[in-house]
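Q: Please design a sequence for this.
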């Protein structure tokens, strides 16, 4: 089932989404067609590694924040997940999702206003390459933590930050360390559609880890998936590009600590 704002209603996406999310309305179709290529990093390494970290989903409820077209939830439903809810600002969803899958057009920064999310518990909560669009990263993780069922966990992935530093250093003629440790925002032409400019907050590995700690989460497992030797031989251009920019993602399985850090209020 797909839930979109009615054409006559005020656009709930336009009023809430942060600037960083805005390009996704233009970018979604380019992203999905790039992702579906046989040699996309998502196809080759990212989704297989995400799927492995997720483990058995039989009988589970899954919330996917920034779900893209919802195709990954469709796969999880076929593999036994019984209630799958996805929300995405781009609102470009797969046709006829399985009955267990509900896809909602909306801004995950406002998910408290979405009853299908805010009034339920979930066994698994996913931020797959979408966490960079959170306006309040600690706040949204705390809220997600509060929706987890007993034994639930959050699976969160982010681009390896050194990759952005390498690309900016190459473009700007600067040094990798200076770029990695700089603060503030940076903008770049999207690799999926160079007509679209993306803007992101800079981050480092430690800032990401501190965000998890402040949200009352501990890292049960982490991985940095990369091309296998066989894939390197089959896709030498992808191998060269991945090597040059340390292109890839960090994947974290995050579980709630029994309580939030001292001095912080619960959401
Ligand atoms: C890099 S794509 C990842 C899509 C999908 N999770 C995957 O792994 O293929 C980032 C996704 O986050 C979505 N997104 C960005 N900002 C959002 C927001 N504020 N609320 C909901 N979705 C958002 C985009 O529309 C896009 O589909």
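A: Design:
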């Amino acid at each position: 089932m797909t839930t979109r704002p009615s054409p006559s209603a005020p656009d709930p996406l336009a009023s809430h989404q942060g600037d960083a999310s805005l390009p996704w309305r233009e970018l979604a179709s380019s992203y999905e067609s790039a992702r579906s290529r046989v040699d996309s990093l998502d196809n080759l390494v990212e989704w297989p590694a995400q799927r492995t970290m997720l483990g058995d989903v039989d009988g589970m409820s899954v919330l996917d924040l920034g779900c893209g077209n919802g195709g990954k939830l469709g796969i999880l439903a076929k593999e036994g997940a019984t209630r799958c809810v996805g929300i995405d600002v781009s609102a470009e969803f797969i046709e006829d999702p399985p009955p267990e899958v509900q896809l909602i057009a909306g801004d995950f920064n406002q998910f408290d206003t979405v009853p299908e999310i805010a009034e339920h518990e979930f066994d698994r909560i996913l931020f797959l390459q979408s966490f960079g669009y959170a306006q309040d990263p600690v706040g949204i993780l705390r809220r997600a933590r509060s929706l987890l069922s007993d034994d639930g966990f959050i699976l969160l992935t982010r681009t390896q930050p050194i990759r952005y530093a390498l690309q900016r250093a190459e473009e700007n003629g600067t040094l990798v360390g200076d770029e990695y440790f700089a603060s503030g925002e940076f903008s770049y032409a999207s690799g999926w559609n160079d007509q679209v400019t993306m803007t992101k907050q800079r981050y480092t590995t430690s800032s990401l880890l501190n965000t998890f700690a402040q949200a009352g989460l501990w890292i049960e497992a982490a991985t940095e998936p990369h091309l296998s030797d066989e894939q390197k031989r089959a896709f030498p251009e992808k191998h060269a590009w991945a090597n040059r920019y340390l292109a890839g993602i960090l994947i974290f399985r995050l579980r709630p600590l029994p309580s939030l850090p001292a001095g912080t209020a619960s959401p």
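Q: Thanks. Anything notable?
A: Strands lie at 2-3, 61-65, 83-88, 101-105, 122-128, 148-159, 185-189, 197-201, 217-223, 249-256. The mean pLDDT is 92.
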